[in-house]
Design goal:
- By secondary structure, this protein is an alpha+beta fold.
- The protein is built from 22 helices and 4 strands.
- The chain has 2 domains: 77 residues; 382 residues, MFS general substrate transporter like domains (Growth Hormone, Chain: A).
- 65% of the residues lie in helices and 6% in strands.
- The chain has a 4-stranded antiparallel sheet.
């Protein structure tokens, strides 16, 4: 290369990695997701052109996922530009490590949260119970959110890390207990507590991510965690075909999470307590106007959660029953349908995180609410290719609602962040239970799921209006800017 090219290579990078010089031809890590990083130039200088060899040595701060991301990083680093898949704000070593470990736990959380959804119709067949009984069982299971709320209260007092560890261990063990169910009542009772702890896991994972990630990558982090949860949910779908092998085959789905316990324990040991919880542990609690502001925010987000889940929960929970009873699918067919129509949601989830951090949360989230709910509802009216296409479109567009998932952790102080989000989820679960009961009753009344879902589609449409007209824009704002009574931490 010529002199200009050599001069560029001898300039410290500030793109995918932040460098600082350690000599004329050696650069080391200043900022980035690495445990170790070094770039070295070997230069043979000529009169007009120079021969240069550029060598990278690095170790990513990405436990468990390191082999995958090392391969990607090896291809990206020599190009000296920010790749499409990178977060809008660069992560440092700690943030990358925490997000990676949380993603591992989120995979487990996604699996646990999907188990009863995927198996309830097969369990009901074994126990000879009706669609109404399924709806009641699923509604009862959601009462477990009160367990999650209790975990959140403790997390605000004693720390996120400790409660997350106990929640995930309890959730895995109680889920495994479902394999021993002698009836639908036992399955519902055991999964009530398992689902409560699973919900608590999900809330704490989101809170910890928000408290550790930089301001320009919080929504990106939520989207990555959502993809991890989707991977876990997909694993439950992959296992589901065992239900075709034997009337009791569905019980195997409940035992699989037990295999994850060694990985869970290792991940929990490496997770630190969040910097913001430590920094705010001794700060005074809110009073007066700041507290009233949080109550207003809580009412707004809880209303949105209730209206959205009035539709979203039954749309997910009754899908398998719809496919089996009204479209004649077996377990294998359900798995294929779910995987082929849901896997492309990864596109929407990824875009939601990027767009929410760069373009704002509100419009991205509102599009997901309105477009996703309409297309999903249409899929319950259609059969054949139109059913597949409508469901696919609904899932991809609907996945943009991930952009709204960051609001809960952002809009509350560190003292109240966990329990506020637990309260929002609790109110959302009330909407979920109401939706399950309503859709179950409407299905029995109409004899079909389409008209039932047409009624509850009003929920997400009203939520989209709330988001556009009432939700604040929080993109690229530090948590301390949104919650000025918190301890003033320098944003990463």
């Amino acid at each position: 290369m010529d002199d200009a090219g050599l001069a560029e290579l001898r300039t410290a990078r500030d793109d995918l990695v932040g460098e600082r010089p350690d000599g004329p031809n050696r650069f080391v890590l200043d900022h980035g997701p690495f445990e170790h990083y070094q770039r070295t130039l070997t230069v043979t200088e000529g009169a007009q052109e120079h021969q240069v060899t550029e060598t990278y040595q690095f170790r990513l701060s990405v436990p468990v996922w390191r082999p995958l991301f090392t391969l990607i990083m090896r291809r990206a680093l020599p190009r000296r530009r920010i790749p499409w898949w990178s977060p809008p704000s660069r992560l440092d070593a700690r943030a990358a490590r925490v997000l990676s470990l949380l993603a591992v736990l989120q995979v487990i959380d996604g699996y646990l949260g999907t188990v009863i959804t995927q198996t309830i119709t097969f369990a009901a067949d074994e126990f000879n119970r009706t669609s109404t009984a399924q709806g009641v069982t699923l509604a009862v299971v959601r009462i477990g959110v009160l367990v999650a709320l209790g975990v959140m209260v403790l997390a605000d007092r004693h720390g996120r890390r400790r409660l997350l560890r106990w929640a995930i261990l309890g959730a895995v063990l109680l889920t495994g207990l479902g394999a021993l169910s002698p009836g639908l009542w036992f399955l519902g009772g055991s999964q009530l507590f398992a689902r409560g702890l699973t919900t608590g896991m999900g809330i704490l994972i989101g809170v910890m991510a928000a408290e550790e990630l930089p301001r320009g990558a919080r929504a990106y982090g939520v989207s990555m965690l959502s993809l991890a949860a989707a991977l876990g949910a997909g694993m439950a779908v992959w296992v589901l075909p065992v239900a075709d092998l034997n009337p009791q085959g569905w019980r195997v789905v409940y035992l699989v999470p037990l295999l994850s316990l060694p990985l869970v324990l290792a991940a929990c040991r490496r997770l630190p307590e969040t910097r913001r919880f430590v920094a705010n542990k001794q700060t005074p609690d809110l009073h007066g106007d700041p507290l009233r502001t949080e109550y207003r925010r809580l009412a707004l987000l809880a209303t949105g959660a209730f209206l959205f889940l009035l539709f979203a929960s039954p749309a997910s929970q009754f899908q398998n029953d719809f496919l089996r009873e009204q479209r004649g699918f077996n377990a294998t067919g359900i798995s294929i349908y779910t995987l082929l129509t849901s896997t492309p949601a990864a596109i929407g989830i990824f875009l939601a995180g990027k767009w929410a951090d760069t373009r704002g949360r509100r419009h991205v989230g509102a599009l997901g609410l309105a477009g996703g709910s309409v297309f999903i509802t249409l899929s319950y009216f259609f059969a054949g290719p139109l059913m597949w296409v409508s469901h696919l479109g609904g899932v991809v567009i609907g996945s943009l609602t991930v952009a709204l998932g960051v609001y809960g952790p952002e809009l509350f102080s560190t003292h109240h962040r966990a329990k506020a989000n637990g309260t929002i989820v609790t109110i959302g679960v009330l909407g979920s239970a109401a939706g399950l009961l309503l859709v179950g009753w409407l299905h029995d009344y109409f004899g079909a799921y389409g008209p039932a879902f047409a009624v509850v589609t009003l929920g997400p449409l009203l939520t989209a209006w709330l988001v556009i007209s009432r939700y604040p824009e929080t993109a690229r704002k530090a948590l301390e800017e949104l919650n000025p009574d918190d301890a003033n931490l320098e944003d990463v």
